Amino acid sequence: MRVRLVVTFVLVALLSAVTATALAYRDARTAVLQRTQNTAVDDLRERVAAVAAGFDLPPDQRSLSRFAAEVSEGLGARIVVARHQDLTAVSDAYADTEGRITAELRAAVRAGDGTRFQRVEWRGEPYLVVGTPVTYADGDRRTSGLEVFAITDLRAERDDTEALLDSVREGIVPVVAVAALLALLAAGTVLRPVRKLGRATRELAAGDLGSRVAVRGHDELADLARTFNETAGALQSSDAELRAQEAKARRFVADVSHELRTPLAAMAMVATVLEEDADQLPPDAARAARTVGAETARLSRLVEDLMEISRFDAGAARLNASETDLADTVRASLALRGWTDRVTLDLPEGVRAVVDRRRVDVIVANLVGNALRHGAPPVTVTLAVVRAGGGDVPGVGEGGERVVLEVADRGPGLPPEARERVFDRFYKADEARTRTTAATATTTATATATATGPAAPDGGPGPGAGLDGGQGSGLGMAIALENARLHGGTIEVEAQRPGGGAAFTLVLPLRRTDGEGEE
Question: Which candidate, 161, 277, 309, 471, has a CA 20 to 30 Å from the CA of 356?
Fold first, then answer.
């Protein structure tokens, strides 16, 4: 911060000095040039009027040369050029005037609009060229065809303005030095308590909850120190309680996970046997067997989802990434659940990226499953690659290519309050929806078993894990978002589309492998 304060002071002082120098130079240069221009224009007018009174038209070359010399005698060191039709006379026979009198100035003077002037650069030196037409002395002010130009050297004016600029520029150095000294003094006064507060903060972050800072004065820094001491005291008083609660929570999660897996495995085996023999049982018994199977599967998914969420919370989730054809992955996910005929696909071929195929399958299953259950047909799945400058697609910046997978439906959409909470754990947009009855569970048991799919080989959730809805755990959308973030992407929701329905957009960075299969 000391460096930033010093640099800021110096930059402000430097900017002020440079601005003042630039303004002074501009005003001085303008004043000098304006004075020179006015003098040159007035002198030329007066001298031409005096000499032209006794000049006969049309002239010959000799008389035109004499006219140019007489005009030049009253203008000092200026070079005078006189023109009349095809004749040209120069007061200095050795002067090169062609490069200094421009075609634009000649045309303006020839038009007879009065005296004109122009500043030009010739051979790297500045000149002022003033031109005026000679008019008849009668009332209508007709042009006589005689044109007079005076060339004035501006090197003296340039040297004067540059000398002024040099003198002002030399004053910048002491101004910057004084600003740096003041900045160092101010930084020492301001940063001393800040350093003490920073040291106490680092001690607090390292676990020393007894760290405090001395409060001096009544300014903003003193208020900050006082607030820090109060915060540290509150943290110290509640630290023991928080540690105890954290230990209890960890033990509870571990105990629940351990205790549930064993009876659930036994229940799943019994439920499988009952479902296999359901057709041979009486109707009520068969319905009960299918209900037990459906609820056991739902409970198993809930436990798996809870364990998956706990892995995300603990930072233990890892990607098993490989280069994958995303279109094939989406088709396989839909085919596994029997949704292919219920979804309209726009999946271009050749879109390959380095992703975890199982986790992408989880995302697709959740997004499409929710669209089918809570939306209305047609449900569309669109895959695209968006390059740098990807327009209005959420999550796409200027930093490279992104894979965009959009799942949209034409249903009623999400309520406004649901958009911010759709990825919350155990949140359902329809709060009136409760656990299904036994009869409903019986009719959906087959569909649930289809959506669940096989378990993942690494012990994680299976391809259909985390599906929300009547038979879901309420964790599906949260798991989908966590899987997207694990890939470095996100999921954006458009709650109400102009044509109706909602749209969920999965955005992933397009990472590819090289020819040897390495990232």
Answer: 471
